[in-house]
Specification:
Layout (H helix, E strand, L loop, with lengths): L2 H8 L7 E7 L6 E7 L3 E7 L7 H22 L19 E2 L5 E6 L12 H17 L18 H14 L9 H8 L7 H8 L5 E3 L8 E3 L6 E4 L6 E3 L1 H12 L17 H14 L6 H5 L1 H21 L12 H18 L1 H9 L3
Antiparallel strand pairs: 1-2, 2-3, 3-5, 4-5, 6-9, 7-8
This protein binds 2-acetamido-2-deoxy-1-O-phosphono-alpha-D-glucopyranose and magnesium ion (MG).
2-acetamido-2-deoxy-1-O-phosphono-alpha-D-glucopyranose binds next to loops.
Length: 359
């Protein structure tokens, strides 16, 4: 371990001395490391301040939410050890500020697998069940106590405005090479208020949502294959169930990686859409409304369009938000999202038919 990491690691109240540290390269925002201690393994993360403006408030959210879930697990005879993240204190606080003013947090490592992609419908059903259960466990959480980590995170209409502003400013001179993508998004401008309008009218109830429902945010038990624990909780905020459904579909039901460059390989897998819906809807069967059910396919399309806008906005602004690994990476990611949107439009009646069995 280097001296500065040693200092950060030693700031946390781990149960035994730290022996080594290794980087986890997954995730576009925070930096994550595994810390192996004599008797236990932990995860430490540097919270990206540019994205998460108030780390102490974030940590209050995370501790509140995970304590709530743990209490539910204890009451229901669930897996208290592995069913919710257990954050580790640094003195008084659940964070440590290093010499550079960076915020760090730590939690106990939970052994299991985080799948980067789902290869089988059965696995994706389990991911859907895990995210559905997560929403259930938080259905009685006091929404008013949640700090809104990133205001308007999934406000697609606001994301559209930000996209137009980035096109107008064009600070990197990249708009010209993205003319087709810009036109594609502009043609769907009206659709961007679908979910915000539904929330405003009450058609879609306000819930505590995860908001970043990629399959790699569920830890799967190696032996049983069942979802153990939902992670990556920074964006737990008030929102619509459609955010969690839609984001999961846009990522997990895609036939290809988020940055696949051969667009012929990118389409939405109806059988995976069906598989996720099965797990998610079943675990939410007591609370999901008819309006929400009916809107699932459209929710998936809107969240995918939104992600395309976010990647393109970042590309136009010079790649300051999403970590990139090569030039044009955010434009490549944009293209896969827009290809998925087009394919969802083509398969609209198929997807609508798949959810119809539930209402
Ligand atoms: C970011 O860091 P990661 O990969 O879990 C992003 C999500 C995007 C996702 C796209 C806080 O999540 O909203 O959907 O990248 N998280 C934040 O892959 O912006
Ligand atoms: Mg993540």
């Amino acid at each position: 371990m280097m001296n500065n990491t040693k200092k950060i690691v030693s700031a946390f109240d781990f149960s035994s001395p730290a022996l080594s540290i290794s980087e986890c390269k997954i995730g576009h925002i925070n930096s994550t490391y595994f810390v192996d201690c004599a008797h236990d393994r932990y995860v430490i993360q540097k919270i990206k301040k540019e994205v998460f403006k108030d780390p102490p408030a974030i940590m209050a959210n995370l501790v509140g939410v995970t304590d709530h879930i743990r209490a539910k697990l204890a009451a229901d005879g669930g897996d208290v050890q592995n069913g919710a993240l257990q954050f580790v204190k640094s003195g008084e606080h659940y964070y440590h500020i290093d010499d550079n003013g960076e915020y760090w947090r730590a939690y106990r490592f939970i052994d299991g697998i985080c799948y980067e992609s789902c290869d089988t419908p059965a696995l994706f059903t389990r991911v859907g069940t895990a995210f559905g259960n997560f929403q259930n466990q938080l259905s009685d959480y006091d929404i008013s106590t949640l700090y809104e980590a990133i205001p308007n995170f999934h406000n697609t209409a606001k994301r559209y405005e930000a996209f137009e502003a980035a096109v107008a400013a064009d600070i990197c001179g990249r708009a010209k090479e993205c003319a087709a993508e810009i036109a594609f998004i502009r043609a769907r401008r009206k659709d961007c208020s679908f979910i915000v309008d539904g929330l405003a009218s009450g058609a879609f109830p306000l819930r505590v949502t995860h908001n970043d429902t990629k399959p790699n945010n569920v830890i799967i038990d190696k032996k049983t294959g069942v979802g153990l624990c939902v992670i990556d909780l920074d964006t737990v905020m008030p929102g619509s169930l459609l955010y969690d459904f839609g984001d999961a579909i846009r990522f997990g039901a895609s036939s290809a990686r988020e940055d696949e460059t051969d667009l012929d390989k990118v389409y939405v897998r109806a059988e995976m859409f069906d598989a996720y819906t099965k797990g998610f809807v079943k675990s939410l069967s007591d609370s999901i409304t008819k309006e929400e059910l009916r809107a699932l396919p459209e929710g998936a399309r809107i969240l995918t369009l939104e992600q395309g806008m976010r990647f393109l906005t970042d590309h136009l602004q010079g790649d300051t938000y999403f970590r990139i690994h090569r030039e044009g990476h955010n434009l490549e990611r944009t293209r896969t999202q827009l290809k998925l949107v087009a394919d969802m439009e083509k398969k609209h009646s198929v997807l609508q038919g798949l959810v119809a069995q539930y209402y």
